[in-house]
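Researcher: Please translate sequence to structure tokens.
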Amino acid sequence: MEEISDTITEDLSIKEILDTTLFSIGDTHIKLSAVFAVTIFVIIALLVIKLIKRSVYRSKSLDNAKKYSVFTLIKYFSLVIIIVISLQILGFNLSVVLAGSAALLVGIGLGIQNLFSDYTSGFIILIDSTVKVGDVIEVNSIVGTVQEISLRTTTVLTRDDKYIILPNSLLTRNELINWTHNALASRFEVSVGVDYSSDVKVVMEILQEAAKEEPAVLSAPEPFVRFTEYGESSLNFSVFFWVEDVFRAENAKSKLRVTIFEKLTENNITIPFPQRVMHQAKE
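Model: Translation complete:
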């Protein structure tokens, strides 16, 4: 009987400890039992999110960029649900909290509407997948590879190896070029002007030959040359070509310009420059 009595006494003491109020916020009393329950719930929820991440990234029907977008959306929605349920476990009446803070939220919303716009844009980007991790994009003359997409910002790595953090609203409000949207090579061009005494057909052959010799230029589609215009002091040509590594396309263009210059020099074809003649007025 004494053992049973001791057990009952211990149970009562544990229950009393768990029912201990740690602190109070208004009419809400935070008990130790509620804190324990929230801790266990959060740990389980985080483990579930981790399992979901593994499942998403094991999927063979999605590419890595889409896997990132899907999991990011799931993660943010899960965090919102975790916060709401945790507050309820702690004893907060969410309807009262939201009603009491409605006016405050309106005032805050007006003050940080740009921030909300960034978050909304983040959801749009993640859902429609027009911009994905790994894409090469150009916005406001900034060209870079997308490294990370969060709800508020997108991080890109530029061609000079600088990380730039862009607000998501910048990507949805401005004209954006996604060079890798269709996972195809993109077309570029290099232009050059030659002297009017040059043989047009020879120049076009040299430009096409130079493009074919550049390792970064794809053989299919085949590069081609256009005689674009009669300039003030030169005949202007453009060679068009396709590059698969869009992010480093400027390197390919630079090497191609060097090759073109060397070949034109070998064939005694000059690249003219504008000349201005100054006449002194007679007194």
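Researcher: Any highlights?
Model: The beta strands are 21-25, 28-31, 136-139, 142-149, 153-158, 163-167, 176-178, 186-194, 224-230, 235-243.
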